[in-house]
Design a protein that fits this description.
eight-stranded mixed sheet, 33% strand, 8 strands, single chain, alpha+beta, 4 helices
Length: 134
Amino acid sequence: MIEIKQLHGTEEELYRLVAPLVMNPAVLKQNYNFPFRTSEHFQWFVGLDGEGQVAGFVPVECKRTEYVINNYYVRGKDPDVLSALLARVLQAFPDKWLAAVSFVEDAELFSSLGFVAEKTWTRYVKMRKEPAHE
């Protein structure tokens, strides 16, 4: 079972939970060496396993016209953890346009949650999901 916390982008608890990961060379390698970033315009969804360890996180940048999922991490690339995190994001923002830059290997999971592919690159797929209530 995974516990998911929603944290503001500058919240102290967020830094405590994700700092060891976002500076870990193995985690950065999984993210193709792109750094993770945050600001007051982000909401983070952090999944904790039964032992209180971070199993994954999905940062969401809250822009004026859409909310953007980008540079997420899931330990061991576990699809169940990613699915739980994304379901929580969708629950938190049902009336927002969501854009996502997913890894190619995760595109099918995003599609199963209602995201539609717009553009595919070598490693990433840009996807979009309409609001549940428009």
